[in-house]
Specification:
There is one protein chain. The protein is α/β, with parallel strands linked by helices. It contains 13 helices and seven strands. Strands 1-2-3-4-5-6-7 form a seven-stranded parallel sheet. Strand 1, helix 2 and strand 2 (65-69) form a beta-alpha-beta unit.
Length: 295
């Protein structure tokens, strides 16, 4: 979930609660990741992260799983965020591979194990070598799967064959972390998606999962193909949070406001192309929008 900001740069906690309510009640989200990278977590303070979690939990925590992004490239800081997330009432943790410092696999094992030991919350590992610089290797995942609180993987690595072997040999639950590959991931055993495009087509993604699980592969494929313009618009043409906030702005929904530096708002020409792609993908975009303003 994106983090809404006010014009003065502060976190819009009321807007976050409204957006969370919309995503759960209107877009059929079973859960929300708060303080992930799409939520601009590198630019929010620890106090802001905790307040944001509490605002979302108060709004929808009784009917959706709230997963707190707690990963950093500093183990001690990650442990602090994990404990604060537990204190705020989060239901689970999302822990990204430590980025930039490129630890060896043994370092990843120690890091993820320390986080899993720090709280009673279940943990989802976020494997995204394109940003982190290193993958969580399959052998490492199999070792980490032995920990009772490491239960899931958000995969943005795209190794369907390797992940298939890990799923076959462990109890790890897999989630697509790359909207380009949502349907292929279902075909090899993934449980669902941790999605960016779900901000605008969450109900359609839920329908895709329902159709696939019911054996209606043709229907799942039809939805996959219909959403291709939406995926292309949000996932390939600019940074994800920039694109999603532009989409939310077009739809008149909370969260479509400012971004924090170094991210910048989408230029007008991107918004015009985005409107076209969303419409082709079946999203109803109002012609005239009066954005919501927090007071």
């Amino acid at each position: 979930m994106v983090t809404p900001f006010l014009p003065d740069g502060g976190v819009d906690y009321d807007g976050a609660a409204r957006l969370a309510t919309h995503l759960v009640d209107e877009r059929r989200h079973d859960g929300l990741v708060v303080n992930g990278t799409t939520g601009e977590s590198p630019t929010t303070s620890d106090d802001e992260k905790q307040q944001l979690l509490r605002a979302v939990i108060d709004a929808v925590g009784d009917r959706a799983v709230i997963v707190a992004g707690a990963g950093t490239n500093h183990t001690e800081h990650t442990l602090k965020l994990a404990r604060e997330a537990e204190a705020a009432g989060a239901h689970a943790l999302l822990v990204v591979t430590p980025y930039y410092n490129k630890p060896p696999q043994e370092g990843l094992i120690r890091h993820f194990t320390a986080v899993a030991d720090a709280t009673a919350l279940p943990a989802m590992l976020y494997d995204i070598p394109g940003r982190a610089g290193v993958p969580i290797e399959n052998a490492t995942l199999m070792r980490l799967a032995e920990h009772p609180r490491i239960i899931a993987v958000k995969d943005a690595k795209g190794d369907l064959f390797g992940a298939s072997r890990v799923m076959a040999e462990t109890d790890l639950v897999w989630y697509s972390g790359d909207d380009n590959l949502n349907l292929p991931w279902l075909s090899v055993g993934a449980a669902g998606f941790v999605s960016v495009i779900g901000h605008v087509v969450g109900a359609e993604l839920h329908e895709m999962i329902d159709a696939y699980r019911a054996g209606d592969i043709a229907r799942a494929l039809e939805i996959h193909r219909r959403l291709l313009p939406v995926v292309a618009a949000i996932m390939t043409r600019t940074q994800g949070a920039i694109a999603v906030k532009a989409a939310l702005n077009l739809l008149g929904l909370p969260g479509g406001g400012p971004l924090r530096a170094p991210l910048v708002e989408a230029p007008p020409e991107f918004a015009a192309r985005l409107r076209e792609d969303l419409t082709i993908g079946g999203v109803k975009v109002p012609e005239v929008v009066i954005p919501e303003v927090s007071r």
